[in-house]
Amino acid sequence: MTAGDSSPFPRFPAGFTFGAATASYQIEGAAHEDGRGPSIWDTYCREPGRIADGTSGDVACDHYHRYPEDIALLRDLGVDSYRFSIAWPRVQPTGDGPPNAAGLDFYDRLVDALLDAGIAPAATLYHWDLPQALEDVGGWRVRATAERFAAYTAHVAARLGDRVPRWITLNEPFCTAFVGHAIGRHAPGTREGSAALAVAHHLLLGHGLATRVLRETTGGEIGVTLNPDRLLPATDTPADRAATDRAETLHNRVFLDPLFAGRYPDNEADTWGELAADPTWRHDGDLDVIGTPLDLVGINYYRPITIAAAPHTDPDPATRTAVDIRAIETWQGDVRHTAMGWPVVPATFTDLLTDLARRYPAMPPVHITENGSAEDDTVAPDGQVHDADRVAYLDGHLHALADAMAQGVDVRGYYVWSLLDNFEWGFGYAKRFGIVRVDYDTLERLPKDSYHWYRALLADHRARTGGAAAGDGPTPPGAGR
Ligand code: IFM
Predict the structure, then answer these.
(1) Closest CA to 411 of 383, 456, 371
(2) Of 153, 332, 356, 419, which one's alpha carbon is 20 to 30 angstroms from that of 124?
């Protein structure tokens, strides 16, 4: 694709970062190698009925051994940056104590190989694989886990801090807190009412403590990745609008307000009732730690959610969590839905970003740290994967992103989710988000049409802006080798 007015691709400014993202438990495999300890996901996957296809991340994409091949794919794709996550139980098998050198060695090799390929590493410190030993002593329900997260961060920063130019503390704390501890569809898979609120708070505290460690010990950019939802009332009735306000707090404000407005949401009592009546988990000074200044906020976006009021169905206040809110994942209008059943409405991406920028003026520059679609891909008789629906999804969302930027939202980067088909949590391997297909029998990688499309978009962007291709570029900032 040559640059020019006839180009079908959206325009992004010079210096904009394009990347691809993955996460440790979803791709690494090697679950029992080199001293890695068990995580809550290892435990959860072994509980009958938890994972749709009965699988686990034991082998996943075997990225732990095949990372050179995956970096070659990234280099050929032409991305500027690769977002991966570090498995805490590789670095500290029990979540505490001295680091496991072999675990850190893996990330050391990965970071060096990325830099050699001219790709800037973007490391996420927590993408849900909590060491099981920490869960056994309270997990994120207890304050000590936030402190241990900061200690783990210090070990990682001591080893990689000279070479990683971008750090993300947490991925999607909403999922850890509420999908994990209230809805019970992610590890640890419990339905605990107010404990989920303590989890949300301790995640934020751990984020703030880790940010301070990174700031003192590395020169890289620091941020946190959230998955704020675009929530829309099902009808214009007062009941549905009120339910949407409560859902806005439950999904979004619970994290955004402490991080970027220095406060807890003002409608907590309405949202959580007695669950939040006595938040003993909050200590004086915590908001200051949580609000430690950041260089970026990561936003993961996939689809809008429609909200309707629903009657309380759980009479037990100990386990009741906002059950008077019904989240509807289908869309009332005529739009396509992905293999996850998620509606494809790219304009809601623009709306989310402009709305966040308006409501949180102190929010730092945005990086879209995940966006993509699961599709029912097949290998065609010509041996290729013609995933036209995924291409249309990405094209629509990148145009929507460009629209948000044209309206003044400060967005600096975009990472497609995901580089590889991988372990999609409770869905196992049945849902494929990759722009590269993984054959789970042979572990062979096959770039899909969407990979070639994204590659052409990146080439078009470079041609327009005069940027360098991966492998040709300067060593990323902070690279001290
Ligand atoms: O696969 C997940 C990822 O781990 C977190 N964000 C959403 C993705 C798709 O469900």
Answers:
(1) 371
(2) 356
Q: Is residue 473, in this structure, part of any structural domain at all?
A: no
**Model confidence pLDDT, tens digit, residues 174-191:** 999 999 999 999 999 999
- Distance separating alpha carbons of residues 61 and 186, to the nearest angstrom: 20
Q: Percent of the chain at pLDDT above 90?
A: 88
Among the listed residues 268, 370, 375, 424, the single catalytic one is 370
Pocket test for ligand 1, best of 27, 41, 178, 300 (most atoms within 8 A of CB): 300
Provide the domain limits for residue 106: 17-465
Total count of domains within the chain: 1
Cα 95 from chain centroid? 21
CATH number, residue 336: 3.20.20.80
What is the C-alpha separation between 227 and 250, in angstroms, rounded? 12
Active-site choice (28, 135, 172, 248): 172
For tokens 């049409």, name the residue.
449
Q: Is the C-beta atom of 240 inside 6 A of ligand 1?
A: no
Q: Where are the beta strands (DSSP E) in 60-135?
A: 81-85, 120-126
- Per 3-state DSSP, the chain is made up of helix, strand and coil in percentages (nearest 5) of 40, 15, 45
In a domain, 7, yes or no: no
Asked if residue 68 is part of any domain, the answer here is yes
Residue 172 falls in the annotated catalytic set: yes
Residue 315 is predicted with a pLDDT of 60
Nearest-CA residue for atom 2 of ligand 1: 424
- How many helical (H) and strand (E) elements, i.e. helices and strands, does the chain have? 16, 13
Within a domain: 134: yes
Mean pLDDT of 51-76: 98
Give yes or no for residue 422 CB within 6 A of ligand 1. Answer: no
What predicted TM-score, i.e. pTM, was given to this entire model?
0.95
Please list the residues that pair with 300 across neighbouring strands.
370
